[in-house]
Specification:
Radius of gyration: 31 Å
Helix content: under 10%
Number of strands: 37
Distance between the termini: 70 Å
Largest sheet: 22 strands, mixed
Number of helices: 7
Strand content: 35-45%
Length: 810
């Protein structure tokens, strides 16, 4: 019990809790709870103007202007001054001017030249910015720039929805691209030669460095009365929630961080050359062969606001004026040759064989801010302090205990050489000059994450190949079967170069006692740095697929298309901005092969059946051709569509939350131990949580005993020991429920006046059978967790949706 009237409870915490919305769900089990699902609003407008001109019989040209403006207002689930964890207001502006000239020298010689300028402004601002009242009164050290100010900065209380603004807000990326290209085609004999060159000059202004209004985390367990961090880790969810909320009430944050507000201006140039030859060898065989060469600079910053980690000197080096390397701190790859070849062979009049191979380079590799060298000291300062108070249980603390800052200490400017002299409570805010570039020293590397790209980083590439056989069984029926494969290597993935070694087994750090286990910081191999996020060419992917397609048309208005795929996809990391189901875009450097597993998007079986049927009544159809006009308009000309989709379930990556003694890095996702068996509960053995707030779909010993009275004697998952960072569970080792959905549509065009004008009307029912499809369950494991394996509404595919749409065509 926490006495809310206790004078030790911070007035800041009281103000935040008082600003939360009032409970709006009456009755058990939701009494005193708040439910909210506010809709987004979208305003979207776009238009084009195009002018085509013919100068003479040989020369034509065009010019086009396009513009798009969109605004998305995305309110948070928790609204009001204490909420704001959403995208807020998103504004998008696209503008393009394009033109081209085509000149015919002769029937066998054609030149085509084009140019485009593309501008994109896309960004977001915090929810309620400048409108909601501030809850930060009296908190020192917060920025005052109106672009960054919100009603409340990020207050991340473990096991609760986050209070305050979204941590990545504000943010924008504004690329401007100049893109001229020229192509020349020359037809000679059986060959059609094509030569081309394309140039891109890319200028991108970025604000993607957060949190610029501060972030406080309450995950230290300082209010826990148990003896060890292991005891806290094995406690039930209610205890963990109470401990974290108590820390918040008393202002006992375990970390606080702040980023300075900076815009960077990135530049990149791309030169692409290609040659291609289409050879008609004979009447049955055509071969296409080509070679592309890509010369792409690394990114540099207009004012040299780049830095890179140097493993030789174990320090950050700064960009300077001069060569590409001096400005980008990364060398430019010069051997990016991409061959490709394809063929089409008519085996017999109704059978064609197609085959192809191509190599493509991954020149665009944006992993958020994680692979940007501009996100380094001294230009970008993201200071992160980890702390522990003197009143916490020694067995729970992972840092040296400190006394609470005195008024003099709290008011002193930040000193990077002594970054954490005392325990600074939430109400004591942030030190002066906390993120000032002028205050950066070598010691700042212990409080700010560094980014590292090896100077000779190669360009990743993917080899794609296929063999396809197409056969026409009749005038109306064709069938296609294909093998499709991809093999990608040297793909960019992320890791922590300063990943910590596991704790050695000692008398005070073993399976029974953890009092002598070293913290994460004490186990890092480079003691003068904290996390060093490395971009390295260790990513790979493998895809093998058998694909079939059956297409059938009848003379009675029926069209059928059936597509089936049986495949496997294997890689060692998810795309960093595509992480789902517990997966990660970062690899474990101590066991890179251990990251090999099913891709996050791997669904081995996919079956899609599409039908389009013109109902046989109406003008030009089997019945009703001579029906009265009113009957034609009401009953004639309708079309029915159906799409039936069945596919394998998505993979799930089982993870756990390590203690400081187990943690390998603050940016890695770690997995527990796993025994053979399938943890996915059969549907007839799943059970609901009280109040129907979720379905338990994975084996969860704590919930099964508490709610079902069942004792699990052979749990599949278990936590690693204090001397392990990773368990033996494989990446994406669990496959969840299959997906089934039937969509139906009804469509008709109504003729309007003047002639050539019509009204297109459409009714669509998605998931018309209202099939319940679970996307994925909670995948963070703990023996006492009351959320592991639970599927909630937010992770369930939509139920039946009815949609009416109409448009005027003229």
């Amino acid at each position: 019990m926490i006495p809310f009237g206790d004078p030790s409870v911070s007035s800041f915490a009281k103000g935040v809790l008082a600003a939360l919305p009032a409970a709006n769900v009456p009755g058990d089990p939701f009494g005193s709870n708040y439910a909210s699902l506010p809709p987004d609003t979208i305003v979207d407008n776009k238009g084009d103007i195009r002018v085509d001109g013919t100068f003479n019989q040989r020369t034509t040209a065009f010019v086009r202007y396009s513009e798009h403006q969109g605004v998305i207002n995305s309110p948070p689930v928790i609204q009001g001054a204490a909420g704001g964890d959403s995208n807020g207001t998103v504004k998008i502006f696209n503008q393009q001017i394009a033109g081209g000239v085509t000149h015919l020298f002769s029937q066998n010689s054609i030149l085509d030249a084009r140019f485009a300028f593309t501008r994109t402004d896309g960004g977001k601002t915090p929810y309620g910015q400048g409108v909601l009242p501030s809850l930060e009164g009296g908190i020192p050290g917060l920025p005052t720039n109106p672009i960054t100010v919100a009603s409340l900065n990020v207050q991340s209380v473990a096991n609760y929805s986050s209070f305050g603004t979204q941590g990545s807000n504000p943010q924008f990326q504004n690329p401007y691209v100049y893109n001229p290209k020229i192509n020349y085609t020359w037809i000679r004999g059986r060959s059609s030669y094509k030569f081309g060159y394309e140039y891109q000059a890319i200028f991108t202004t970025i604000d993607d460095f957060n949190p610029v209004y501060g972030e406080d985390t309450y995950n230290g367990g300082f209010s826990f009365t148990g003896a060890t961090s292991s005891a806290l880790s094995s406690s039930n969810t209610g205890t963990k929630e109470a401990v974290a909320l108590s820390d918040f009430l008393f202002g006992a944050r375990d970390t606080y961080q702040l980023n300075n507000f900076v815009n960077v201006h990135l530049n990149q140039r791309m030169h692409n050359f290609y040659f291609q030859d289409d050879i008609r060898v004979n009447s049955r065989l055509t071969v296409n062969a080509g070679l592309r060469y890509e010369l792409v600079t690394p990114q540099w910053e207009s004012s040299n606001k780049l830095a890179n980690y140097d493993p030789t000197t174990q320090s950050l080096i700064q960009a300077t004026s001069g060569s590409i390397y001096n400005r980008a701190l990364v060398n430019m790859p010069k051997l990016d040759f991409a061959p490709r070849i394809g063929l089409s062979f008519q085996l017999e009049p109704k059978t064609v064989i197609l085959a192809g191979y191509g190599l493509g380079y991954a020149q665009f590799n944006r992993e958020g801010g994680e692979n940007m060298l501009s996100y380094n000291l001294p230009a970008i300062v993201n200071t992160n302090i980890v702390q522990a108070p003197q009143f916490g249980q020694p067995g729970v603390l992972t840092q040296a205990a400190e006394s609470i800052c005195t008024a003099a200490q709290a008011g002193a400017p930040f000193n990077s050489a002594n970054s954490n002299p005392c325990f600074r409570t939430t109400s004591q805010g942030y030190p002066t000059n906390f993120t000032s570039p002028a205050n950066v020293t070598a010691a700042s590397n212990l409080t700010t994450e560094a980014r590292y790209i090896p100077k000779n980083l190669p360009t990743g590439y993917v080899q794609s190949f296929h063999l396809t056989v197409q056969h026409q069984f009749s005038t109306n029926t064709t069938f296609e079967v294909a093998y499709v494969g991809e093999h990608g290597v040297k793909i960019q993935v992320l890791a922590d170069l300063n990943q910590a070694e596991p704790n050695q087994v000692t008398a005070t750090c073993n399976t029974t006692t953890t009092s002598g286990c070293l913290s994460l910081a004490a186990r890092r191999p480079i003691p003068t740095f904290t996390t060093i996020e490395e971009t390295l060419p260790e990513g790979f992917l493998l895809y093998d697929g058998l694909q079939t397609k059956l297409e059938h048309r009848t003379g009675h208005g029926l069209y059928l298309l059936n597509s089936f795929t049986w495949s496997r996809a294997i890689d060692n990391a998810e795309g960093h901005l595509e992480e789902v189901d517990g997966d990660s875009g970062r690899i474990n450097l101590q066991d890179p092969r251990g990251n090999r597993g099913p891709s996050g998007y791997n669904q081995p079986l996919n079956e899609v059946l599409s039908l389009v049927y013109d109902l046989p009544f109406g003008k030009g159809r089997t019945f009703g051709t001579d029906a009265p006009t009113w009957m034609q308009e009401v009953l004639g000309g309708w079309q029915i569509t159906a799409i039936n989709n069945a596919s394998s379930g998505m993979p799930i990556n089982i993870t756990y939350s390590p203690t400081s003694g187990q943690s390998a890095s603050t940016i890695l996702v770690q997995r527990p131990n796993e025994l053979p068996g399938n943890p996915v509960l059969p549907k007839n053995k799943r059970f609901r949580l009280p109040g129907n707030v979720g379905i338990v779909a994975l084996q969860n010993p704590a919930l099964e005993k508490a709610l079902e009275g069942t004792t699990v004697t052979d749990p599949i998952f278990s936590l690693p020991t204090a001397n392990q960072t990773y368990g033996d569970a494989g990446r994406n080792s669990v496959r969840f429920d299959a997906f089934y959905q039937l969509d139906l549509g009804l469509h008709k065009q109504f003729a309007l006046r003047p002639e050539g004008t019509s009204f297109d009307f459409r009714v669509e029912a998605f998931n018309v059978l209202n099939q319940t499809n679970y996307a994925f369950p909670q995948s963070s494991y703990s023996p006492s967790s009351t959320s592991f394996g639970v599927v909630e509404a937010a992770s369930t595919f939509p139920s039946r949706i009815l949609q009416f749409a109409g448009k005027i065509i003229f």
